[in-house]
Structure formats: C-alpha cells, structure tokens
Amino acid sequence: MEPAGRAQAARERVPRIDPYGFERPEDFDDAAYEAFFSTYLGTLSRRAVKWSRLLRRGGSVQRGGTLKRYIRKGIPLEHRARVWMGVSGAQAQMDRNPGYYQSLLQGERNSSLEEAIRTDMNRTFPDNVRFRKGAEPCLQRTLYNVLLAYAHHNRGVGYCQGMNFIAGYLILVTKSEEESFWLLDALVGRILPDYYGPSMLGLKTDQEVLGELVRTKLPAVAALMDGHGVLWTLVVSRWFICLFVDVLPVETVLRIWDCLFNEGSKIIFRVALTLIKQHQALILEATSIPDICEKFKEITGGGFVTECHTFMQKIFSEPGSLSRGSIARLRERCRARLLAQG
Asked: Are 83 and 186 in contact (CB under 8 A)?
C-alpha cells in the first residue's frame, strides 16, 4: 500500500477523540501513533497486572522504593487517582477535613474572583468535548467549583491563570471534584510553593534554576541564550506554569505527573533538560530571538514526546544526577539573586 493509503487507513482506524475527550488535530500523525500504541498497549497490559497485585491489599498507598519504581514505569489510568491521592498527601488531607470542600463552596461570595474564574471557562480545553457547554455532564461547572473552592481555601494565591488547565486535567483523571481540589492543594500548596502567588517567586526561581542547570550540563545552549539575551522565562514559562499541559501530549503529561506527585518538582527539571538535550543540535541552529522561540516550540512535538514510555525512561538517564541537595542550593542562590534585583 502507498504511504498516502496507509496514512488514510490509519486515520480511519484511530478515533478522532482520544480517551480523555480531546479531539485529535488535523495534522495528527495517525500512522505513527498507531505504530507506537500497538507496542505500548502490551506495556500497559503488563503494568496493569503488576499494579493490581501491588494494590490488592487495599488500605493506604505506601511510599517506598517499589512504589517509586512502579510509578516511574507508569500508573494505569484506573489506579492513577488513588495513587496520586496517596503519594501526594491529598488523601490524608481530605480524610482529616471531612465536609471542608463543600463548606468552601457554600461560604462567602466574591464577585470579582468569580468573574475572573468564569472568564477562563471557555478558554479551558476548547478542543475537549467534555468541557463544552453542550456536553452532558459539562465539566465546566466542575472546574469552576474546584477553582472557586481553592481560591477561598488559599487566599494568598486566589486564582491564577494556568491553574484552570491543571485543575482540568485533575478532573479528567479523578472524575471527582473533591479529590481534584485536594490534589490541586497538594501541587500549589506543597509541591510547587510560590508558583502561583502574586509574586510567582517560586516559578521565577525555578526557571532561573533551569538556566543554571543548562549552563552546567549543556553549555553550548546556555551560550546561545546568553548571546542573544534570551531570558528563560520567554521560552519555558508555559512548561512550568501549566506543568506541560497543552505543551506535550496528554498521556506523556500524565506520566510526568505520576512522578511529580511522588518525587516533587525536580521532575520538571528532568523533563525540561531532556527536551533540550535531545534537540540540542536543532536549537543551536537558531540565529535570532524569534528563531530560538520557534525551536523551543518545535522540540515539544513529534515522535520523541509521543512515545511516552521511552520518553520517561530518558528523563531519568539523559540529565544525569539531580540531587535534592544540589537543587536546593541552586534555588537558594537564584532566589537571593531575584530578591536582590527587586
């Protein structure tokens, strides 16, 4: 069969809407996806059997070396919510605070806050059939409730753009308002502190940390950025703010989040460094600031990021060692520098 015929046949076989409700774009490579998924399906099946055995005992999810290894290899969708809730501490928080989520929704009203959240509803996943107004049920209302409750819960953060995309993914995975709320609290309140507050100091700090890591591990890319005076926030801010949502394919994002909930924010650095290292030669072809920005958009597409299982293996080998201590020291230096700059 001719390539065009094979492509058309694959397009007819691959559903136009993925398991999470997202419509596949017109330029989606159906043949490449089908080839990848036919292999990945076997991996998923084997992992599902092992996860069922691991979780068969019931009770709470116990963190440890075995669980860490299993998580890095991927959590089956049917177990993902339970594992995220367990390893992030969200389940413990929810158990300690029965009825708290509903009390937030029934509390005081803030019209300006409600309007800010409502404005972003139609902008959140317009390509997802479950978030459209005509959907039954429509997840826009669920998303609105989670964001409103969190804004009342964490007044220091309130509502910040980017949180809508994160909460939306949580809802798609958990199918539960309350669980999504507590997972959002785990991310914003503990795993990524100061990412979404008014100053966004944690976010700015970690972007600076990435720059320092690139300077050490990929000096040619750092020299290119410095030579053109490109700030890291210009090319990677969406990676950090949205935790790769709408940047990488959905299944790859969820595999990243599996590890993020268990191992913390250093996973973001591993993903970013792997993307940059894998495409270093392409990035170094850039000759201008717009060209650099375009290269950084380009490296988040293609087969490398679609083949999520291989990609996740790479993030734990390509960047090399990223110890908690070294990251903590880098954060201290970068934060002090940002504060000194005002």
From this structure: no
